[in-house]
Design a protein that fits this description.
Layout (H helix, E strand, L loop, with lengths): L1 E5 L1 H9 L18 E2 L3 E2 L3 E5 L4 E6 L2 E2 L7 E5 L7 E8 L4 E9 L5 E4 L10 H18 L19 E4 L4 E4 L2 E2 L5 E5 L5 E3 L4 E6 L9 E8 L2 E8 L1 E2 L6 E2 L4 E4 L11 E7 L2 E3 L1 H5 L8
Parallel strand pairs: 3-9, 10-12
Antiparallel strand pairs: 1-9, 2-4, 4-7, 5-6, 5-8, 8-9, 11-14, 12-13, 14-22, 15-21, 16-17, 16-20, 17-18, 18-22, 19-21, 22-23
The chain binds zinc ion.
């Protein structure tokens, strides 16, 4: 990682004097650097600290929310390029920049010779689907004051990981949508708990066509979790939940070929890999 400090005033003065390079002003007191808690990788999520006095933080030009204490979070997508530019603008007009290196990952790709069945959705399906998508979009717009985004996440269910984030099937040369979460084959009726603190932003008591009984939890700061195919949901919209609190049970409602928990996570519009937040799956029963 590298960072640079720019003072607009001194830099312009340098140009006028024909000096050109900001590093001439090595005697200028530099603001503290931007700090990330750990390395960044595709699908990953990392917390950081902005320098005191930061009034605006951007990642590749897009605003990043900043907590009052200077804490912030970043998420990186499956196909995130190798670098991203993080910029903090300070109250005195100076800015601090840091180039974040994002480690690439290998994604499992499976080539299948034929197109999937039921590739064309019916008009009846689309008519049922539209209001479901509207509910999901509305839920994502809810910005709760939860501080779960700062926590170390835990697995919401235990069991064999039957599907990983980022895997992709290619049907007769046509790439399918990459798997956007992690699947835990925990067994029908197995308990699902909150992986971190949050607020319930959607609890589908009548099953959605694809997701079945869908539960969405906002962890604050643009970070949220979605739990799909539940057999039962035990919380309701607006509930404040604590890490480890039971939320419902594993099922196979919606489009699922067997009982499993699909856990998807987003940081703002970016889909991230929940397995990276939860770490290795613990052995044994919860
Ligand atoms: Zn899945």
């Amino acid at each position: 990682m590298s960072f640079s400090v720019k003072s607009p005033l001194l830099f312009c003065l340098g140009l006028m004097l024909g000096l050109g390079q900001p590093h001439v002003y090595a005697t200028t007191i530099a603001p503290p650097p931007l700090r990330l808690d750990g390395p960044a990788q595709q699908g990953g999520y990392v917390l950081g600290w902005a320098p005191p006095g930061t009034v605006r933080l951007t990642l590749d030009g897009t605003d990043v929310r900043l907590a009052p204490d200077g804490r912030f979070a970043l998420g990186f997508g499956r196909d995130q390029p190798a670098t991203a530019l993080l910029t903090a603008v300070l109250a005195d007009g100076r800015s601090v920049q840091q180039t974040v290196q994002i480690a690439p990952r290998q994604w499992p790709i499976e080539n299948l010779p034929t197109l999937p069945r039921f590739a064309q959705p019916s008009a009846e399906f689309l008519a049922r689907r539209a209001p479901e998508l509207q509910q999901i979009e509305a839920a994502r717009k809810i910005a709760s004051p939860s501080t779960g985004w700062r926590q170390n996440f835990m697995w919401p269910a235990r069991g064999r990981i039957s599907g990983v984030f980022g895997s992709q099937r290619i049907y007769a040369g046509e790439p399918g949508v990459p798997h956007n979460g992690v699947d835990v084959a925990g067994g029908m009726g197995g308990q699902v708990v909150a992986p971190a603190d949050g607020v319930v932003i959607l609890a589908a008591q009548s099953p959605f066509t694809l997701e079945g009984h869908l539960l969405m939890i906002d962890h604050g700061m643009g970070l949220n979790s979605a739990f799909l195919h539940l057999s039962r949901i035990d919380v309701t919209l607006g509930d404040v939940v604590r890490q480890g609190q039971p939320l419902g049970t594993i099922g196979m409602t919606g489009r699922a070929t067997g009982p499993h928990l699909h856990w998807g996570m987003r940081w703002n519009e970016t889909r991230i890999d929940p397995a990276l937040l939860a770490g290795p799956m613990p052995r044994g029963a919860p």
